[in-house]
């Protein structure tokens, strides 16, 4: 799909400097721009590329003044980075703007859905499923019995939404996500043989939640596993049964959160973090990558290490970690000297 500079300037509320009829149909970095592409200049260190870029249109700040001849048509805006982000969002909406029900697919007679639905081929909607308006469900997706999905939700191919799951509005669920599988609940007897503990709770996903590819969120044993509004989960994260993640918390890839742990609001948790079960992590906590959390964490702490300690404390200790072989060598020499003098 092609767009003219005039159309794009209208979307971004920008001012055109050049040919308003210039057409583009793809996006590019400024240093990799080709004919028919649109790019942007936000970082001053890339300014030199605007004089050599082959991009047909470039979004720039409204204060930009060319010091040499340029061939690209300019669209001047207040904040070029935010404007380009807005354009990416608009482009994505156009690209994903599908509707209708593809065949083959299965829809239970008791399932209901709102206006402007897209249901990709080989998808399944179970009994008593309720889906809102403007929902896009891409192919090979399973929606179990009694699932509720709000408005403006996108579910990408291969996601599995188990029964009783509740998903709010404006959520994005990427391919391979599994929501509502059984929690890891087993009870050993005196002989050490494990019996499965039935997992009869559900998962609640509130509004504006993004869930990355391959992430799994287990149903509660009793009650609900809850992902509060605005949470952003990266790829390949494991959220165990009865976990609660507070509003606007972001968690990077390959992190695992064990059962019944509560994570507060506005936390930032790095990749490959392991969080033990039945603990409480406060609000605005920052956890560095590859940390292991086995204790309660107070509000506003920044921690690192395994087991995790205070971030500043860890950095101070790390200075000594690096010198341990030298320190050990010095101690050995001192002990030998003392022994020789004794």
UniProtKB/TrEMBL annotation:
Ranges for domain UDP-3-O-[3-hydroxymyristoyl] glucosamine N-acyltransferase non-repeat region: 22-89
A single GO molecular function term of this UniProt record: UDP-3-O-[(3R)-3-hydroxyacyl]-glucosamine N-acyltransferase activity
CDD domains, alphabetized: LbH_LpxD
EC assignment: 2.3.1.191
Pathway: Bacterial outer membrane biogenesis; LPS lipid A biosynthesis
Any one GO BP annotation for this protein: lipid A biosynthetic process
GO cellular component: membrane
Superkingdom assignment: Bacteria
EC top class, as a word: transferase
InterPro entries documented for this protein: Hexapep (IPR001451), LpxD (IPR007691), Trimer_LpxA-like_sf (IPR011004), UDP_GlcNAc_AcTrfase_non-rep (IPR020573)
Catalysed reaction, written as an equation: a UDP-3-O-[(3R)-3-hydroxyacyl]-alpha-D-glucosamine + a (3R)-hydroxyacyl-[ACP] = a UDP-2-N,3-O-bis[(3R)-3-hydroxyacyl]-alpha-D-glucosamine + holo-[ACP] + H(+)
Residues the record marks as active site: 241
Protein keywords: Acyltransferase, Lipid A biosynthesis, Lipid biosynthesis, Lipid metabolism, Repeat, Transferase
Described purpose of this protein according to its UniProt entry: Catalyzes the N-acylation of UDP-3-O-acylglucosamine using 3-hydroxyacyl-ACP as the acyl donor. Is involved in the biosynthesis of lipid A, a phosphorylated glycolipid that anchors the lipopolysaccharide to the outer membrane of the cell.
Quaternary state and interactors: Homotrimer.
Family per similarity comment: Belongs to the transferase hexapeptide repeat family. LpxD subfamily.
NCBIfam families xrefs: lipid_A_lpxD (TIGR01853), PRK00892.1 (NF002060)
PANTHER family named among the record's database cross-references: UDP-3-O-ACYLGLUCOSAMINE N-ACYLTRANSFERASE (PTHR43378), UDP-3-O-ACYLGLUCOSAMINE N-ACYLTRANSFERASE 1, MITOCHONDRIAL-RELATED (PTHR43378:SF2)
Protein name: UDP-3-O-acylglucosamine N-acyltransferase
Source organism (scientific name): Salinimicrobium sediminis
Lineage: Bacteria, Pseudomonadati, Bacteroidota, Flavobacteriia, Flavobacteriales
């Amino acid at each position: 799909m092609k767009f003219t500079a005039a159309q794009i300037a209208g979307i971004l509320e920008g001012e055109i400097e050049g040919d308003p009829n210039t057409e583009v149909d793809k996006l590019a970095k400024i240093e990799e721009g080709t004919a028919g592409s649109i790019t942007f200049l936000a970082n001053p260190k890339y300014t030199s590329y605007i004089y050599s870029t082959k991009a047909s249109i470039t979004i720039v700040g409204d204060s930009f003044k060319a010091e040499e001849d340029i061939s690209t048509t300019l669209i001047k805006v207040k904040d070029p980075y935010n404007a380009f982000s807005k354009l990416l969002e608009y482009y994505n909406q156009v690209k994903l703007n599908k509707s209708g029900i593809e065949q083959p697919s299965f829809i239970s007679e008791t399932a209901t859905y709102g206006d402007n639905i897209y249901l990709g081929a080989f998808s399944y909607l179970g009994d008593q499923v309720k889906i809102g308006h403007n929902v896009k469900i891409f192919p090979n997706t399973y929606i179990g019995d009694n699932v509720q999905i709000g408005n403006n939700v996108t579910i990408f191919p291969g996601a599995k939404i188990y029964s009783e799951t509740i998903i709010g509005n404006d959520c994005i669920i990427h391919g391979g996500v599994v929501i509502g599988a059984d929690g890891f609940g087993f009870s050993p007897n005196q002989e050490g043989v494990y019996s499965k503990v039935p997992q009869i709770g559900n998962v609640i996903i509130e509004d504006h939640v993004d869930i990355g590819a391959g992430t799994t969120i287990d149903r509660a044993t009793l009650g609900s596993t809850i992902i509060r509004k605005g949470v952003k989960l990266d790829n390949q994260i494991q959220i165990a049964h009865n976990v609660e993640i507070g509003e606007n918390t972001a968690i990077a890839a390959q992190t695992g959160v064990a059962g019944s742990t509560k994570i507060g609001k506005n936390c930032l948790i790095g990749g490959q973090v392991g969080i033990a079960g039945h603990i409480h992590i406060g609000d605005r906590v920052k956890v560095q990558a590859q940390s292991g959390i086995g204790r309660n964490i107070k509000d506003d702490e920044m921690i690192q290490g395994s087991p995790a300690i205070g971030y500043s404390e860890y950095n101070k200790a790390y200075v000594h970690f690096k010198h341990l072989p030298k320190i050990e060598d010095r101690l050995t020499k001192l002990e030998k000297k003392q022994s020789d003098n004794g």
